[in-house]
Fold:
Amino acid sequence: MLYAERLTMSSDNFGEFHSQIHATRLPPLAALRCFEAAARLESFSRAADVLHLTHGAISRAVRLIEDDLGVALFERRSRRVFLTEAGRKLAAAVRDGLGLVENAVREIREVSQTPTLVVSCEPTLLMRWLIPRLPDFQARHPGVSIHLVAGGGPVSLGRGIDLAIRRDDFPWPDGTHAVPLFPERVGPVCRVDKVPAFFDVAEVGGPLRLRSDAVLLHTRTRPNAWETWARAANCAVPKQRGQSFEHFYISLQAAIAGIGVAIGPWQLVRDDIANGILSAPAGFVEDGSRYHLLSPSAISEQGASAALRDWLLAASI
Structure:
């Protein structure tokens, strides 16, 4: 008896044994979720569709809670169900409770998981400029994960895409926030050892000019590239024979292969020029367009988006 009294006193002091005896027994969480959906939709069938369950599974879950509580939660009339007073009371409590749990889980996941930015970028810029530089960003910001998506033209920001890098050659939706990255500078480029075959010296010390028999490389994604360059460079549009390719990236690869002369944007060919693969005998000129970082709203001064924005601005120089 003395041992029993000491055990009772000790348990009361710590509160654990007593709380376990008097704790309210709750219905299973899975059953409560089924009940909440049925109560919110006032339909077992629609609740089953939303939760990807069968009508029978919803009905059994609700019946389990009713049997446990000893009260009816729904009035069943023909093929429709209506909440009873007890059902409305429990539905409000379950809805509030699940909401608190969902909010807590979301906040914990945001803190514990590595933030992932989904970034859409024009394909050629993605392959020839962004990806080669991405290891530097990862080294500087190891806590930020980037998921890259190749895409051009209009983009639906905020619907699976956090940020987008686009040239301003199409209208943007109202409300889109744009951070200018760099102007587009273009010029004729060819393989270094093909310069004598494709260019002539106009005069001693003067700039090189395209030979009349040089092969011009065109692309369907930028069909007016040569005209745009000629207008920006204040020179006549070349009339030489040409060869056309499906994508801009392929035309640049054709130039690297020595097939002909392509219009190369500076940011897309700068690495090949620095590595001695391509040459730009006539230099580069701004064509009036510019690349921007697009977001659905203004980017804050902290966070993953701000880190990527600042790094892009530094990498664009």
In short: Residues 116-182+291-315 form a domain with the D-Maltodextrin-Binding Protein; domain 2 fold (CATH 3.40.190.10). The CA atoms of residues 41 and 185 lie 58 Å apart. The chain has twelve helices and 13 strands. Confidence is low (pLDDT under 50) at residues 1-21.
